Here is the input.
Amino acid sequence: MTGQQIVIGIVEFFMAMFGTIKRACCSRDDSTLEQWEKDRNLYDLNSIVLIDEYLKLVIQFGFVTLFVAAFP
Here is the structure.
C-alpha cells in the first residue's frame, strides 16, 4: 500500500511538471486572445482528476478501517 502511494505520487509529480513545461513552451501569445478564449483554457471540464483523488481517499479509508479491527 505504501509503495503504491509513493509510485503514484512520483508519477503525478512528473505528469504535472511535464504539463507545466509543455504549456510554457507551446503557449501562444496571450495578448492576441480575447478574454473568453483565455478563460476557456483555464480548466479542462472533461478532467476527472478530482474524482480520482476522492476515490483514492475512500480506498485508503477503507483499508484503515479494515485493518484497525485486525491490529488493535
